[in-house]
């Protein structure tokens, strides 16, 4: 009987299909800019070489979002490269390497901040990026915080539409892709984005697939303390949890011990091996399983001020050496 059960479990694991695409987020590509949001030119080249060595395929960001919107499987080898804010170093240091490797990429810009400037790109430079497989997308007009800046619904919608209008006029591109400034959003903002037909990009970590939230897609940071190629390799090989729902949606916590509730569609890992890591805590924290596919996690201690993440990982049963990975970003001001 035990042998039969073992065979059944083994057979089920072999046929467990999981699709995973990865989106990377960068800001500066320079060793002269703030380290927390920067990757050196040499490190960036190492990242591109790592992607090549893993035989991954760098695709336009829209290739991934089109698949998710159509509820069709993403390819396990897909990776998308994104840059937030449109800094000058993307043109100076990243573009020559992206051309060399023939990789497409996306730059999220704020039209009010577009140059001429020592810090930000100008429209001519953005046009040059567009000639070399660059998607130029929306990051709001002037990097407004859509949660904290007190914008009304009407003001926020006008802001997003105006930014898209200017990008279209200047570059003839309109992709309806929005990267939330600071990675901050709430349920109301997501619903407004849905009405506008946009895709939203956040700043929490994890791979994506057709079950991912199209209004808050996760991206792995690859700059600052996250620039190490060894840890980046694990992220590029990560798998997304097949998620039914996550509550709450908002990045602003309702308490200093915020409760995260996750409901899965299915799972390919043992409950006992799911571990969650909370920013500022050195030890992993075990979640509370409320059913076979539902778990809760809340910080045992009050979360500190600033940006706090709950990162949850579990080793895959059917894909040896690969880990499921998801995170929740809290912004406690």
TrEMBL record:
<dbReference type="GO" id="GO:0005975">
    <property type="term" value="P:carbohydrate metabolic process"/>
</dbReference>
<dbReference type="Pfam" id="PF01522">
    <property type="entry name" value="Polysacc_deac_1"/>
</dbReference>
<dbReference type="GO" id="GO:0016810">
    <property type="term" value="F:hydrolase activity, acting on carbon-nitrogen (but not peptide) bonds"/>
</dbReference>
<keyword id="KW-0732">Signal</keyword>
<feature type="domain" description="NodB homology">
    <location>
        <begin position="77"/>
        <end position="333"/>
    </location>
</feature>
<dbReference type="InterPro" id="IPR011330">
    <property type="entry name" value="Glyco_hydro/deAcase_b/a-brl"/>
</dbReference>
<dbReference type="InterPro" id="IPR002509">
    <property type="entry name" value="NODB_dom"/>
</dbReference>
<dbReference type="InterPro" id="IPR051398">
    <property type="entry name" value="Polysacch_Deacetylase"/>
</dbReference>
<dbReference type="GO" id="GO:0005576">
    <property type="term" value="C:extracellular region"/>
</dbReference>
<protein>
    <recommendedName>
        <fullName>NodB homology domain-containing protein</fullName>
    </recommendedName>
</protein>
């Amino acid at each position: 009987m035990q042998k039969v059960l073992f065979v059944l479990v083994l057979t089920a694991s072999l046929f467990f299909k999981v699709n995973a695409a990865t989106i990377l987020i960068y800001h500066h590509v320079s060793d002269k800019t703030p380290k927390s949001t920067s990757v050196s030119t040499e490190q960036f080249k190492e990242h591109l070489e790592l992607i090549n060595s893993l035989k991954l395929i760098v695709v336009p960001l829209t290739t991934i979002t089109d698949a998710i919107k159509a509820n069709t499987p993403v390819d396990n080898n897909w990776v998308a490269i994104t840059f937030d804010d449109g800094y000058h170093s993307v043109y100076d240091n990243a573009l020559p390497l992206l051309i060399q490797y023939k990789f497409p990429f996306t730059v999220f810009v704020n039209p009010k901040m577009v140059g001429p400037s020592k810090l930000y790109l100008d429209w001519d430079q953005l046009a040059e990026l567009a000639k070399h497989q660059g998607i130029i997308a929306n990051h709001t007009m002037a990097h407004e915080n859509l949660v904290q800046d007190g914008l009304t619904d009407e003001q926020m919608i006008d802001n997003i539409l105006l930014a898209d209008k200017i990008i279209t006029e200047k570059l003839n591109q309109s992709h309806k892709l929005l990267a939330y400034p600071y990675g901050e959003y709430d349920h109301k903002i997501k619903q407004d984005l849905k009405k506008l037909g946009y895709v939203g990009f956040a700043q929490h970590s994890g791979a994506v697939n057709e079950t991912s939230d199209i209004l808050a897609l996760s991206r792995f940071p690859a700059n600052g303390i996250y620039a190490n190629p060894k840890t980046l390799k694990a992220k590029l090989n990560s798998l997304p949890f097949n998620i039914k729902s996550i509550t709450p949606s908002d990045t602003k916590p309702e308490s200093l011990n915020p409760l995260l509730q996750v409901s899965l569609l299915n799972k390919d890992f043992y409950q006992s091996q799911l571990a969650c890591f909370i920013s500022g805590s050195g030890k992993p924290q075990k979640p509370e399983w409320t059913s076979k596919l539902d778990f809760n996690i809340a910080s045992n201690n009050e979360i500190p001020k600033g940006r706090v993440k709950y990162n949850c990982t579990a080793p895959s049963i059917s894909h040896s050496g690969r880990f499921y990975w998801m995170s929740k970003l809290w912004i406690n001001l």
